[in-house]
Every structure is written in C-alpha cells, then in structure tokens.
DNA sequence: TTAATTCTGGACAGATTAGTCCGGAATCAC
DNA sequence: GTGATTCCGGACTAATCTGTCCAGAATTAA
C-alpha cells in the first residue's frame, strides 16, 4: 500500500510541549517548532492540522500526564496524607531537575485566562480531575484520622491546587529546591 | 518654547499594563497598544523607546504598585497577622472586581522564566521587597503571640508569596471569590 | 513494476509585525 | 508673528509570520 509514518508523533508532540511551555503560544513560531520537532513543514500540517490544533493537542497531553503523575505519586504512599506530601515532593524533584522549569497548563491560564473557551475547557477538565482525586484522598485522610475534622475537604482540595500553581510559578521564577520543599511542608501543615 | 505633552503618560502606561497582562508581551501588538493607549505611533516611540522598553516600564510600575498595595493593606490592620489576612482579602476583592483578572508579574514569570535577565531582575526586586515586608510582619506577629513559635519566618514569607501567586493563577482560571477567600484563610491557618 | 503514501526541502503568497519617516496642524514661550 | 516642540495620521520598509503548494526521493504492498 503506502509508506508508513516514520517520525514518532508522540515524541514530536513532546518537543512541541517543551517549546510551548517555555515561550507560550504566541512566543513560539512554527519555524521553531519544526526545528525542535525535527519534522518538515508539511508533516506538521498533515499530522496536527495547524499551529493552534498542535497547541491544543500539546496542552491536552501535558495536562493529562501532569495530573496522572501527581495522582500516581499520591496513591503510592503508605497513608493518604503522606501521599499528598509524596506527590508534592515528587513534583518538586521533577521541576528542579529541569534547568528551565515550566508548566504548560499554568502558562496557558496566564496567556489566555478565560478568553479562549476551548483552551479554558482543557484546563477546567484537568483541574476537575485533580480536584476529584484530591477530595477522595483527603476524605480518606480524614477517615484515617490524619487530618483535622474542622478542615473542609473541597476547600482543602482547592487550596492544594492553588499551592501547586504557586509552587510552579515560584519554581519558574527561580526558587531553589529547599525553599520549595519547605513551602510545600508548611502548606500541608494547614490540613492537620 | 514648545508645545507640552498632551497625553497622560501614566494613564497610557496603565492601558499598556492592562493589555500586556491580558495577552502577554508576544501576544500584544503595537497596533493594539496604540489603540488602547490612545496615542499615535510616533508618540509611543518618542515617549517609551520601543515595545520592549514599554513592557519593562509597565512591568516595573505594575510590580511596584502591586507590592505597595499589598503592604499598605497589611499595615492598616489592627494586628500583624490580621494585617496579612486583610491584605489577602483586599487583593481578592480587587481581583474579583475585574472581569478578567490578571497579574502582569506572574504573566512575565510564565512567559519568560529566567530566560530574560532584565525581566527576571524586575520580578526579583519586587519579590524581595514583598518578602522583606512579610518577614517584618511575621516577626511582629510572632512577638505578639499571634503565630506559632515553630514557624520559620523566611519559610512562611516564601509560602505566602507562593500562595499569592497560586491565588492569582486560580483567579485567572476562573475561581469565584468565595473559593479564593476560603483558600486564603486555610493558608493562613498554617501559620498559627 | 506499479500504485499509494510519506518524507524532505524549498518556494511561495498574503498577512502581520516592529520600527522609521514625513507632512501638516496645534500649542506653547518669546 | 516666530521658532520650537508635540501632536496625529498615514505611508513606508524590511522582516517575520502562518499556511499552502510543488518536485522529487523514499518506502511499502500488491
């Protein structure tokens, strides 16, 4: 029949994620994308449609993986509340390992706010998934007696989401690992 | 001698701040700036240099005012720790009053990270000013017995800065005022 | 071999970008 | 009035942007 696709679409998308999260949508040119993704112009348009659709695909995959990583780390710990702490520490370790920490999800929120409905809904979806996982975990933490009964679970979930965003911004601004870890531990103190 | 400047440079800069914080540096065209600032092309280049210098001026003024507002609200309260709470509530009230909440400081961090030294140093300066004010306030809070003696002041200051950033991202993502207030109050709980 | 498909590289168009320049009107001090 | 300066609007350049298109080579199955 025909010649099959040669390049790895997922790897190319990963390169696009890296570029978009460093420079934003408007700050990333198609030319730069072609170089980073190591595909030709035609391949990009054939495979992903256009720059916007590529951005949407990148944002979707990044957000899904990001939330999945967090939840996976959270589940792996021995108790619910230590799971939350583990997840934060794993996130910080990953962020600091990168020489230029950045989050495409936060970048998209900052660049577009709620002005672009499609982009906003992608962010909403992953925020909702994360919030649900956190609420489940916090409910379990309360049942296990790890958490104060005076703490409202939905509020705590929203607080942890905001804390995560705050840590991402701090990391991108140049905060060192120790500071980030201390900040995260102090945040968790409010749940006890 | 000569005809004096007619337009209000500070007001024009305010319009530039609004536009840059909504769309970022790359997402804001000079054409859009001219319309919003209500000045002619020549006036913009004569007065501000170029687009980048205008952005730097906007970022400087925004960050200074932002920190000054926070510190002013913090000082106005009856006790140190309630001052921190007042400052957060005042910030939330202002953010929610805007139909499209945004922070140019956070936007600059997300768009440029530490890739642009001049932009990064502007962010560093205001972060340092805010941190110093917070440390002073928290030290006073500890002395007044409002805060637990086990809380490390520099860590708490970094935590409050990260919380502020997290609230800004949450507000831009569409969080309602009640959620933001509950999150802020929960954050402050960790200091007691 | 042939047909179908994907690849690369480059050319290309049309729009938009940042920044410069000019002409003429307006406003001030002298 | 005169000169100096600032205003505006628009023309303008040169570069860059996104997206389309084409030619030719490569790779697969029938």
TrEMBL record, chains A, B:
<dbReference type="InterPro" id="IPR001647">
    <property type="entry name" value="HTH_TetR"/>
</dbReference>
<feature type="DNA-binding region" description="H-T-H motif">
    <location>
        <begin position="29"/>
        <end position="48"/>
    </location>
</feature>
<protein>
    <submittedName>
        <fullName>TetR family transcriptional regulator</fullName>
    </submittedName>
</protein>
<feature type="domain" description="HTH tetR-type">
    <location>
        <begin position="6"/>
        <end position="66"/>
    </location>
</feature>
<keyword id="KW-0804">Transcription</keyword>
<dbReference type="InterPro" id="IPR036271">
    <property type="entry name" value="Tet_transcr_reg_TetR-rel_C_sf"/>
</dbReference>
<dbReference type="InterPro" id="IPR009057">
    <property type="entry name" value="Homeodomain-like_sf"/>
</dbReference>
<dbReference type="Pfam" id="PF00440">
    <property type="entry name" value="TetR_N"/>
</dbReference>
<keyword id="KW-0238">DNA-binding</keyword>
<dbReference type="GO" id="GO:0003677">
    <property type="term" value="F:DNA binding"/>
</dbReference>
<keyword id="KW-0805">Transcription regulation</keyword>
């Amino acid at each position: 029949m025909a010649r099959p696709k040669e390049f790895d679409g997922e790897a190319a998308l990963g390169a696009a994620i890296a570029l978009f999260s460093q420079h934003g949508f408007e700050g990333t040119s198609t030319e730069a994308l072609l170089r980073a993704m190591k595909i030709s112009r035609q391949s990009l348009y054939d495979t992903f449609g256009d720059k916007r659709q590529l951005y949407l695909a990148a944002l979707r995959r990044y957000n899904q993986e990001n939330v999945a990583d967090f939840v996976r780390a959270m589940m792996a710990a021995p108790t619910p509340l230590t799971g939350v702490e583990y997840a934060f520490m794993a996130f910080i370790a990953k962020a600091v390992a990168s020489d230029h920490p950045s989050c495409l999800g936060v970048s998209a929120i900052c660049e577009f706010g709620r002005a672009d409905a499609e982009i906003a809904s992608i962010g909403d979806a992953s925020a909702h998934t994360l919030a649900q996982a956190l609420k489940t975990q916090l409910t379990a933490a309360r049942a296990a007696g790890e958490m104060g009964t005076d703490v409202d679970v939905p509020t705590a979930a929203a607080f942890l989401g905001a804390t995560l965003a705050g840590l991402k911004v701090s990391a991108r601004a140049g905060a060192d690992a120790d500071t980030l870890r201390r900040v995260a531990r102090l945040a968790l103190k409010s749940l006890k």
